[in-house]
Amino acid sequence: MENIANEQKELKKIRFINVKFIKSASKKAEFIADELQQVAIVGRSNVGKSSLINLLVNNSKMAKTSSTPGRTRLVNYFNINNQFYLVDLPGYGYHKAGKEHTTVWDNTMNDYFTDNQKLKAVMLLLDARLKPTELDKQMLDYLAERDIPVVLVLTKTDKISRSEINLQKQKISTELRFNKSRIVATSTLKKQGVEDISQILEEFIN
Ligand SMILES: Nc1nc2c(ncn2[C@@H]2O[C@H](COP(=O)(O)OP(=O)(O)OP(=O)(O)O)[C@@H](O)[C@H]2O)c(=O)[nH]1
Ligand SMILES: [Mg+2]
């Protein structure tokens, strides 16, 4: 019986097989509003959003990554198996000289999240080594207020030990009052976390 249940789970898991970059949008008029569902990726600048996309789709050149924060300034859409869009959003908390971000969402982000019926889940990325910032908490509250399901993704776990990863999961779960089963540890360097994310996303995409 258990085998059958496991097999069914395997079959339902999200696979990233047929992946296409569709477009970059800079304003509401350019956003995609077709019938496909969407899963968005948000997080502080430089936390590893574009790298995570590349890990998931198994192509290091799909999304542009950079060691310079603030690289992704646009909303980038990737079509996954004609099943849903993976959406790479601009990072927050990037301090450009004379232009400080005091809130998480600029107008583009607000427009993206407002009345987006096709948005089924958001992956909120947190550096596994750091405490969540005020902006991370604002983002989480913002999504909670809109009843948008969130998966917390810890990035760069290759930089800490396994026990530190577990401790961090526990701390974050307590501090943010967040269900531990929705916290995933990832490393793009070690190619870890794809299976867990695939399984969790399956709950939201149908
Ligand atoms: N060691 C390690 N480095 C990582 C990992 N993921 C990302 N990085 C590095 O972190 C830096 C930022 O990665 P990006 O994927 O460009 O980050 P981003 O969140 O898309 O950044 P913005 O587009 O600027 O908001 C790059 O130098 C990556 O190589 C990881 O799992 N392990
Ligand atoms: Mg990026």
Question: What does this protein structure show overall?
Answer:
By secondary structure, the chain is α/β, with parallel strands linked by helices. It has a single domain (2-202), classed as 3-Layer(aba) Sandwich (Rossmann fold). It is 30% helix and 21% strand. The longest helix has 14 residues, at 162-175. The protein has helices at 2-12, 49-57, 107-113, 134-145, 162-175, 194-202; strands at residues 19-25, 37-43, 75-80, 84-88, 119-127, 150-155, 183-185. The chain has a seven-stranded mixed β-sheet, with helices on both faces. Guanosine-5'-triphosphate is lined by residues 43, 45-51, 65-67, 69-72, 91, 155-156, 158-159, 187-189.
Which features does this protein show?
Rossmann fold, 21% strand, binds guanosine-5'-triphosphate, 30% helix, binds magnesium ion, 206 residues, alpha/beta, 7 strands
Brief overview:
With 206 residues, the protein is an alpha/beta fold. The chain contains six helices and seven strands; from the N terminus they run αββαββαβαβαβα.
Poorly predicted sequence stretches spanning 5 or more consecutive residues: none
- Profile the largest sheet: 7 strands, mixed
Strand order of the largest sheet: 1-3-4-2-5-6-7
Using DSSP, what is the number of strands? 7
CATH topology: Rossmann fold
**Could you say which structural class the secondary elements and strand pairing correspond to?**
alpha/beta
Overall pLDDT: 90
Distance between the termini: 24 Å
Could you tell me the radius of gyration in angstroms?
16 Å
Number of helices: 6
For the record, the CATH architecture stands as: 3-Layer(aba) Sandwich
- CATH homologous superfamily classification: P-loop containing nucleotide triphosphate hydrolases
CATH class: Alpha Beta
SSE pattern:
HEEHEEHEHEHEH
Beta-strand content estimate: 15-25%
* Unique bound compounds: guanosine-5'-triphosphate, magnesium ion
